[in-house]
């Protein structure tokens, strides 16, 4: 059965109300732009989304905040988004803050069949409240749980029709872990090639993790902090 | 006069050893890179997934796929590598990063740090700070010594929600350089225009003066 779908609308067609989504990207870098726009168009509601950030007011996952499709975010940093603040303060949006490395590992673990793990990060802080803390070799560690999504959405630079993916530069970020953590993983790529055209040595995400793939269009690749040398 | 931001960064740069892998936080820490000589062959790590961070790009080099953890456009130096955020935090949590330099709202004599949340204000999130203080081999804090009312930010106990406990090794404030030891702060150097007595008077947490305590040399 072919994994190739025509576009983001087809790839996202069966995302249902109340589902959990795992979404790649760091800030606006390496986000699945086409899938987010399709989710906005298709309108599933009460979504729980695990993603490092929540976009900005008018781009990235911020678009799904605007349309009130998100019930809960699991993120490490949400400081770029004024609407997020408003929805959070008014109680319309639930937020679970997780340290960035813990979030990355929770998604990695979820995709790797590891239900929970112990990390030194957050011991003695609010993050550890209500969680099991255990000592190993004289140091305290807190138990964190893996995250799996009903769907995962990732963005890669190149992909082939089997779903093998290659990311570009720091647009890799959370995408490789997210790709492993979806019951259905949707990959959008800038360039979709035939099987055999990617060098196996260069593949970052083996195609087994990807269920649907399409070539995206009109990538904006917005820059949050354009900083240049004088 | 206490130090300005650039001078704090200058002083911290002296703590960066040859061959170190270093992660810099936003604010004053990000200025430290400007004062580390190339001859030290230091590699800067950015926790979104880049080891070997280079200078900001020229206009023609700007690449939206190449940013640092502050979401600024950057370049990559020869010898750089890109990796996933999971690998990035394997480096950090696994103790493979020699040094992290980050800002703080408060630190205390037990080596705890608070830098991510003020109750009642909007919570932006901790990002990678909790992993960095838990995992880097050495943690240096760059901060202002006092708040705007003159209250000490080097406290007996932090009052703000913690980022990590018993984890910081050194503090460089606009007033001085401190080791953080099991016995509390130890003043090693004070700002050129201050005295050890003035620094102690502005410090709430338990603080001893090192026997060889001296004025800071920013040269």
Tell me what the structure shows.
- The complex is a heterodimer of chains A (230) and B (219).
- Chain A has one domain: Glutaconate Coenzyme A-transferase.
- Helix content of chain A is 20%, strand content 27%.
- Chain A has helices at 8-11, 33-42, 62-66, 82-89, 100-111, 175-180, and strands at residues 20-23, 47-50, 70-75, 94-97, 116-119, 133-136, 139-145, 149-160, 165-166, 182-193, 212-215.
- The model of chain A has no long low-confidence stretch (mean pLDDT 97).
- With 219 residues, chain B is of the alpha/beta class.
- Chain B has helices at 5-13, 28-31, 85-93, 129-135, 196-201; strands at residues 21-24, 43-46, 50-53, 76-82, 99-103, 106-108, 113-114, 138-143, 154-155, 170-173, 176-181, 184-190, 207-215.
- Chain B has a 10-stranded mixed sheet, sandwiched between helices. In chain B, strands 7-6-9 form a 3-stranded mixed sheet, with no helix packed on it.
- In chain B, a hairpin with a 3-residue loop joins strand 2 (43-46) and strand 3.
- In chain B, helix 3 packs parallel to helix 4.
- The longest helix of chain B is centred in the N-terminal third of the chain and has 9 residues, at 5-13.
- The radius of gyration of chain B is 17 Å and the shape is globular.
- The chains are: A alpha/beta (230), B alpha/beta (219).
- The interface between A and B is large, with 56 and 52 residues.
Strand-helix topology:
The complex is a heterodimer of chains A (230) and B (219).
Chain A: H1 8-11, E1 20-23, H2 33-42, E2 47-50, H3 62-66, E3 70-75, H4 82-89, E4 94-97, H5 100-111, E5 116-119, E6 133-136, E7 139-145, E8 149-160, E9 165-166, H6 175-180, E10 182-193, E11 212-215
Parallel strand pairs in A: 1-2, 1-8, 2-3, 3-4, 8-10, 10-11
Antiparallel strand pairs in A: 5-7, 6-7, 8-9
Chain B: H1 5-13, E1 21-24, H2 28-31, E2 43-46, E3 50-53, E4 76-82, H3 85-93, E5 99-103, E6 106-108, E7 113-114, H4 129-135, E8 138-143, E9 154-155, E10 170-173, E11 176-181, E12 184-190, H5 196-201, E13 207-215
Parallel strand pairs in B: 1-2, 1-5, 5-8, 6-9, 8-10, 12-13
Antiparallel strand pairs in B: 2-3, 3-4, 6-7, 10-11, 11-12
Helix pairs in contact in B: 3-4
